Amino acid sequence: MRSIGAASTVFALTLIFGLSNAGPEAIAQKLDGRDVFRFDTFGDEQLWTDTFRLNEAIETVTPATALSVGLKVDADALPPPLIKALKSGQLDTDDPRVTRRLLELNAVVGVVGKVADDRIKTIGITCAFCHSTVDDSLAPGIGRRLDGWPNLDLDVGTIVALAPGFPDALRGEFRTWGPGKYDPRHHIFDGTNVIPLNSPSLPVVIPPAYGLRGVGFETFNGDGPISYWNSYVGLTQMGGHGSFSDPRIGVTVTQKPDVVTPKLPALLAYQLSLNAPPPPSGSFDVAAAARGQGIFSGAGRCSSCHIPPTYTDVLSGPDPKVPFLHSPAEVGADPQYAQRSATGLYRTTPLRALWQHPPYFHDGSAADLLAVVDHYDAVFSLALTAAQKADLVEFLKSL
Questions:
Q1: CA 390 to chain centre
Q2: Which residues of 314-342 are buried (b: 16+ CB within 10 A; e: fewer)?
Q3: DSSP reduced 3-state for 230
Q4: Do 202 and 221 form a contact (C-beta atoms < 8 A)?
Q5: 239-269 b/e with 16+ CB inside 10 Å = b?
Q6: Tens of pLDDT, residues 176-204
Q7: Cβ burial, residue 383 (10 Å; 0-12/13-18/19+)
Q8: Residue 134 is inside which H or E element, if any?
Q9: How far apart are CA 125 and CA 39, in angstroms?
Q10: Could you give the C-alpha distances from 110 to 151, 164, 201, 241, in angstroms and in order?
Q11: What are the residue ranges of helices labelled H in 263-381?
């Protein structure tokens, strides 16, 4: 999908512009959880446009560049002529004008832009920016939305570092994150300024937002339930307009009106509706997985913490309103990131669609499931054989 001539590009752009004036304002106004998840910026244009001018940087970003840093395009938002142009190679993906047209179509997953006079006037981001991807059904990076799937191709740090308003020191730290990672404990935005929290940056793997029903405290450190984290991220990280306070981490942001908090129930309901994707047919050895299930509950001692059906023990304490957590030393995890959380501890990760989202652990330090098994085999002195480890991996792939 490279350039095949200016005339064909102009033809395709004309088709796009002529057939679509539908931008974010055309989205239904009802408070629908899916719309909140996909399209609601919570007013975070105050960060990305007003403060750090990311819209100016995107003016020169081509679709090829956008795809290379992990941004995704919603094929269902594209008109038939554009789909035809993509399939036939009639579109110059090295032309930033195409990026602007995709923003007009509201087709860039998790990015909401307003375009006028062929200029990007505002840019905001949504929950889907990090927590959705596509099925690549039209082309790599272009397809139907997969809500709740972590976008592990997304290089948030590189994208954010494009914004001309960020200080150079912050840009340098952002660029160390790499694809599929983000550091939610690095800084906050208070509506006016970016306030440093911790340095050096310790990015964590973007987690899935599917399979949340019954899990409980949906953060790596069990800091709070799902809506707590939605509020923290929506306000202090995305830059939404509203109020959040957690004295445990010394963070208080107050902005009126609060446009985030009233939308949290609808957002939660939609997230809870997202099921974890089943493993693809033929992606694991059924017989080995059956043996591995026995190891999971037996010699591997996995089920003592990963309790079915959610495969976590975070709600197993005497008070379900208080998370049951583990010290970093107990599970062989990095203590430094935990110290930056509200609890200083780690929650047992629920085992959801593990086949879909390597790397593993909060910091991505385990490249595959065998590395996970090897880690716990060493930490707990399990002395599993190579065959037992292999069977256990097949079981984990089946979840």
A1: 30
A2: bbeeeeeeebbbbebeebebeeebbebbb
A3: helix
A4: no
A5: bbbbbbebeebebebebeebbbbebbebbbe
A6: 999 999 999 999 999 999 999 999 999 99
A7: exposed
A8: strand 132-134
A9: 8
A10: 11, 21, 24, 17
A11: 264-273, 286-297, 328-331, 335-339, 369-379
Pair 318, 183: CB distance under 8 Å = no
Phi, psi of 253 (to 5 degrees): -125, 130
Residues with Cβ within 8 Å of 289's Cβ and at least 6 positions away in sequence, in order, are 391, 394, 395, 397, 398
Please report how many Cα atoms fall inside a 13 Å half-sphere around the Cα of residue 277, on the Cβ side. Answer: 18
Say how far residue 365 (Cα) sits from the centre of its chain: 18
* 204-205/244-246 β-pairing: unpaired
Return d(Cα 124, Cα 223) in angstroms, integer: 26
Q: Report the percentage of the chain scoring pLDDT > 90.
A: 87
CB 120 within 8 A of CB 103: yes
User: Look-up: residue for tokens 């050096």?
Assistant: 200
Give the single-character DSSP code of 240.
-
User: Residue 67: what residue type?
Assistant: L
Whether pTM exceeds 0.85: yes
Structure confidence by residue, pLDDT tens digits, 86-101: 999 888 899 999 999 9
13 token code pair: 């752009």
The residues, any chain, with a CB within 8 Å of residue 87's CB and separated by 6 or more, are 138
User: What are the structure tokens assigned to 241, written together?
Assistant: 């307009």
* Degrees to nearest 5, angle at CA 353 with 266 and 107: 50
Which domains, ranges and CATH numbers included, belong to the chain?
6-272 (no CATH), 286-313+348-398 (1.10.760.10)
Query: H or E stretch including 39?
Result: helix 33-39
Question: What is the end-to-end Cα distance of the chain in Å, rounded?
Answer: 37
Q: Which two tokens stand for residue 73?
A: 């395009």
pLDDT in tens, 163-173: 998 888 888 99
CA 49 – CA 121 distance, rounded (Å) = 8
